[in-house]
Amino acid sequence: MLTKQLVQNAISDLPERFTLDEVIQRIYVLNKIESARKKSKEGKTYSTTEAKKKLAKWLK
Protein backbone atom coordinates (compact mmCIF):
# COMPACT_ATOMS: atom_id res chain seq x y z
CA MET A 1 0.00 0.00 0.00
CA LEU A 2 1.22 3.47 -0.81
CA THR A 3 1.65 6.16 1.78
CA LYS A 4 0.69 9.76 1.36
CA GLN A 5 4.35 10.72 1.79
CA LEU A 6 5.48 8.45 -1.06
CA VAL A 7 2.87 9.92 -3.39
CA GLN A 8 3.71 13.48 -2.34
CA ASN A 9 7.40 12.84 -3.00
CA ALA A 10 6.63 11.35 -6.41
CA ILE A 11 4.53 14.38 -7.35
CA SER A 12 7.06 16.87 -6.02
CA ASP A 13 9.72 15.29 -8.28
CA LEU A 14 7.67 16.10 -11.39
CA PRO A 15 8.57 19.14 -13.49
CA GLU A 16 6.65 22.38 -13.05
CA ARG A 17 4.28 21.46 -15.89
CA PHE A 18 3.05 17.91 -16.38
CA THR A 19 0.08 15.96 -17.65
CA LEU A 20 -2.41 13.93 -15.67
CA ASP A 21 -1.17 10.84 -17.50
CA GLU A 22 2.35 11.46 -16.17
CA VAL A 23 1.03 11.66 -12.60
CA ILE A 24 -1.03 8.51 -12.99
CA GLN A 25 1.89 6.65 -14.55
CA ARG A 26 4.25 7.69 -11.76
CA ILE A 27 1.81 6.61 -9.06
CA TYR A 28 1.10 3.34 -10.90
CA VAL A 29 4.80 2.49 -11.13
CA LEU A 30 5.32 3.45 -7.49
CA ASN A 31 2.47 1.16 -6.50
CA LYS A 32 3.96 -1.74 -8.49
CA ILE A 33 7.35 -1.23 -6.81
CA GLU A 34 5.81 -1.17 -3.35
CA SER A 35 3.78 -4.28 -4.15
CA ALA A 36 6.94 -6.11 -5.30
CA ARG A 37 8.80 -5.05 -2.15
CA LYS A 38 5.99 -6.41 0.01
CA LYS A 39 5.96 -9.72 -1.87
CA SER A 40 9.73 -9.96 -1.55
CA LYS A 41 9.58 -9.42 2.21
CA GLU A 42 6.91 -12.14 2.43
CA GLY A 43 9.15 -14.52 0.50
CA LYS A 44 6.81 -14.63 -2.48
CA THR A 45 9.54 -14.53 -5.08
CA TYR A 46 10.92 -16.86 -7.74
CA SER A 47 14.47 -18.12 -8.05
CA THR A 48 16.24 -17.44 -11.32
CA THR A 49 15.65 -21.05 -12.37
CA GLU A 50 11.93 -20.86 -11.56
CA ALA A 51 11.59 -17.56 -13.40
CA LYS A 52 13.35 -18.93 -16.47
CA LYS A 53 11.02 -21.92 -16.52
CA LYS A 54 7.95 -19.68 -16.26
CA LEU A 55 9.22 -17.31 -18.95
CA ALA A 56 10.68 -19.96 -21.28
CA LYS A 57 7.83 -19.65 -23.77
CA TRP A 58 8.53 -15.92 -24.17
CA LEU A 59 12.32 -16.15 -24.22
CA LYS A 60 12.46 -18.32 -27.36
Rg computed from alpha carbons, rounded to a whole number of angstroms:
16 Å
> Element order, helices and strands?
HHH
> Roughly how much helix do the residues carry, as a percent range?
55-70%
Instruction: Give the CA-based shape.
Output: elongated
Number of domains: 1
Question: What does the main sheet amount to?
Answer: none
β-strand percent reads: under 5%
Describe what you observe in this structure.
The chain is mainly α and 60 residues long. It has one domain (4-55). Helix content is 65%, strand content 0%. It has three helices and no strands. The protein has helices spanning 4-12, 20-41, 48-55. Helix 1 (4-12) packs across helix 2. It is elongated.
How does the SSE layout of this entry go?
Elements: H1 4-12, H2 20-41, H3 48-55
Helix pairs in contact: 1-2
Offer a few descriptive terms:
60 residues, mainly alpha, 3 helices, 65% helix, 0% strand
Quick structural overview:
The protein has helices spanning 4-12, 20-41, 48-55.
